[in-house]
Design brief:
The structure holds two protein chains of two kinds.
Chain A (H helix, E strand, L loop, with lengths): L21 H13 L2 H30 L1 H10 L7 H10 L1 H21 L2 H6 L5 H19 L1 H14 L4 H5 L1 H29 L2 H26 L9 H12 L6 H31 L5
Helix pairs in contact in A: 1-7, 2-3, 2-5, 2-8, 4-8, 4-10, 4-12, 5-7, 5-10, 5-11, 7-10, 8-10, 10-11, 10-12, 10-13, 12-13
Chain B lengths: L4 E10 L2 E11 L3 E6 L5 H8 L7 E6 L2 E2 L4 H5 L2 E4 L11 H11 L4 H14 L15 H13 L5 E5 L7 H15 L5 E5 L3 H7 L2 E6 L2 E7 H6 L3 E8 L3 H9 L3 E9 L5 E9 L6 H9 L3 E7 L4 H10 L17
Parallel strand pairs in B: 3-8, 3-9, 6-7, 7-8
Antiparallel strand pairs in B: 1-2, 1-4, 4-5, 9-10, 11-13, 11-14, 12-13
Helix pairs in contact in B: 3-4, 3-5
The chains are: A mainly alpha, B alpha/beta.
């Protein structure tokens, strides 16, 4: 170990506001995730669905412009991509598998490792509070969710608008934009809080994946079974991803049926309760962390 | 000059357990050692000084910042090097230090530039782009110090900075800390079990025991409270001589007994004497008991001895001297 005492230089400068500490935390979280090849693989998997919808929009626009006769046929075959709110809502819903998989594997790295390996002490001994840490971490998880859902949906929306050869699409469909952002926000907030809470307790990847699988595979399977046994649609409310989708549909202004309207309020309550329980679950874990042993 | 630390009736409870008992202290800037056994209250004190926990009663200011109300801003002026492994796994060395700078409020570019400077200063120039998982323990210690130094704090709080270092690394770390402590406007508080570390770096020590300050001051001041002591070397049957010294009020400890030339018994020991003791008493009593004093020198108390004296209230229990003064191999 060699050092030169004379080489030490003082630093003088203005320190930035404390709340800005959230951004380096979020950025570092994303950096850590994107440094692993497996996550690039998952993102690429998510990109497949995106590329399919992207290509469909392009194809339909090209056919409509060059061969209107064929356009009717293409529209009938590719009827799921219409440029309406449902197109984007269904796209974001379909991204669920990849998003959930991505989060299950990233949770330990983003939150669990900090609690296991002293990263939290690193953060908390700086010019910030536990609140900044939590917000920064939630932001990084939320950005990951947005990267697989909201951002591609926005790109598709822009693509559809640009290929329609008129700005009217954007003007007339501002509700869709609100829907994408609203659905994306609900997805990001709910999944961030849930992942943070689960990762703060389970910490390691394997238990986290098991817990996550339980929540997003076993519980929905159980819900489907109960629905069939009792012949009651309300059991479907146990499917968190569907509840979020229902709220997303509401954001797009697309709830038409009475049946969906009836389930909307309970779904909102369930999502809110999940968020609240997540907050209640992770607070003691973060409070318990000690900087000085 | 603003005091480095001002503690007034500082008390902290964990539930029913009291960790700190009404500590009042004012310490001027400089290098301060924090000494105490496990459970003495060092960690609690460090957490309060970092503004991470609020004291149950009393007040504390660090560099003029009230720890109750300005904990976050305080950490902008304080650099903390924790004892435990506290790194963000997966980052490279320079990224980790730059992140520490950014979290302390530095703009990103300046934090990165400063991270390079600090790592070079600490001899980690070649390891900057290595992942932290590939760092040795000694390198991690230096990295933690770099992360504590990156925003150029006025006060460094160091928790066992030489833990796990090899002798060479330890020596270099202490030299580094001494150099840092010597810079104008810089202070450090060093918490360590290794009293030699504190003695080498700090000019002042605070001794904690069971949540109370039992000693504070420069090493010279702490030594001033001690009993005077002498190392004695003798030849001859010393039993009567040592008993006489005890009768005159000295605490006598026999460290070693052996046989000198011509099968004459000899020994070495320490005598802690009252303040009004005159050195010539040793010679008078030696002559009276027919023994030869071959060496006499004052005992220099190091921090370890001061610590033991202050904590235990006395030096180690005396070894019973054989009344006959018979030599033992």
């Amino acid at each position: 170990m060699s050092f030169e005492p004379t080489r030490y230089r003082d630093w003088s400068g203005t320190l930035r506001p404390t709340w800005l500490a959230c951004w380096p935390i979020a950025r570092t979280g994303l950096l850590l995730v994107l440094r692993r090849k497996i996550f690039w693989g998952l993102l690429a998997l998510g990109l497949l669905n995106f590329l399919f919808v992207f290509a469909t929009i392009y194809l339909k626009a090209q056919v409509a412009a060059q061969n209107p006769a064929l356009s009717r046929f293409v529209n009938r075959v590719l009827s799921s991509v219409t440029g309406s709110g449902e197109t984007y809502r269904d796209f974001m819903f379909a991204q669920g598998t990849v998003t959930v998989l991505l989060l299950a594997l990233a949770g330990a790295m983003l939150v669990g490792d900090d609690l296991r390996q002293g990263g939290l002490a690193f953060y908390l001994s700086r010019r910030m509070t536990r609140f900044h840490y939590v917000v920064g971490k939630l932001l990084s998880i939320g950005l990951l969710v947005a990267l697989t859902t909201t951002v591609p949906a926005l790109i598709l929306f822009i693509e559809y608008g640009l290929l329609s050869n008129s700005t009217a699409y954007f003007r007339e469909n501002l509700g869709i934009l609100r829907g994408i952002l609203g659905y994306g926000l609900i997805l990001s907030v709910t999944l961030s809080l849930l992942l943070f809470a689960m990762a703060s307790w389970l910490r390691k990847t394997v238990p986290l994946v098991m817990g996550w699988t339980c929540l997003f595979v076993l519980v929905p399977a159980l819900a489907a079974l109960l629905r069939r046994v009792f012949d009651d649609r309300k059991w479907m409310l146990l499917m968190l991803w569907r509840d979020i989708r229902l709220l997303g549909t509401w954001c797009f202004g697309g709830i038409d049926s009475d049946r969906e309207q009836q389930l909307l309020a309970p779904a909102a309550v369930i999502v809110a309760v999940v968020c609240l329980l997540s907050i209640i679950a992770f607070i003691p874990r973060i409070r318990a962390a000690r900087v000085v042993q | 000059m603003t005091a480095l630390l001002t503690l007034h009736e500082l008390t902290h409870d964990y539930g029913k357990a009291r960790a700190l008992h009404g500590i009042s202290l004012t310490i001027e800037p400089g290098a301060i050692g924090l000494v105490g056994q496990n459970g003495a209250g060092k960690s609690t004190m460090m957490q309060i000084l970092l503004g991470l926990i609020r004291p149950t009663h009393g007040s504390a200011t660090v560099l003029g910042h009230d720890v109750r109300t300005s904990g976050v801003h305080l950490r902008g002026r304080v650099g903390f090097m924790p004892d435990r492994e506290s790194v963000v796994a997966g980052l490279k060395g320079v990224e980790s230090v730059a992140l520490a700078g950014e979290l302390c409020g530095m703009p990103r570019r300046q934090a990165m530039r400063r991270a390079h400077e600090t790592l070079s200063y600490l001899g980690l120039e070649d390891a900057r782009y290595r992942k932290l998982e590939q760092y040795s323990l000694g390198m991690l210690q230096r990295l933690k110090l770099a992360a504590a130094l990156v925003h150029d704090p006025d006060l460094l709080l160091l928790d066992e900075p030489t833990a796990g270092l090899d002798p060479e690394g330890r020596s270099a770390m202490l030299a580094l800390l001494s150099a840092l402590a010597g810079r104008p406007g810089k202070s450090l508080v060093l918490s360590s079990h290794l009293l030699g570390d504190i003695e080498r770096v700090c000019h002042k020590a605070v001794i904690l025991n069971q949540g109370r300050v039992v000693g504070v001051g420069s090493l010279a001041e702490l030594r001033a409270d001690r009993q005077r002591g002498y190392h004695l070397d003798w030849e001859g049957e010393a039993g009567g001589f040592l008993d006489r010294l005890r009768a005159l009020g000295a605490d006598v400890f026999v460290d070693q007994q052996h046989t000198a030339a011509a099968s004459r018994p000899a020994g070495r020991g320490r005598a802690m004497v009252p303040n009004d003791w005159e050195t010539r008493t040793f010679f008078q009593e030696a002559r009276r008991h027919g023994i030869l004093l071959t060496g006499i020198e004052p005992v220099e108390e190091d921090l370890d001895a001061i610590y033991r004296r202050v904590i235990e209230g006395s030096v180690p229990a005396p070894i019973a001297a054989p009344s006959t003064g018979a030599a033992t191999p």
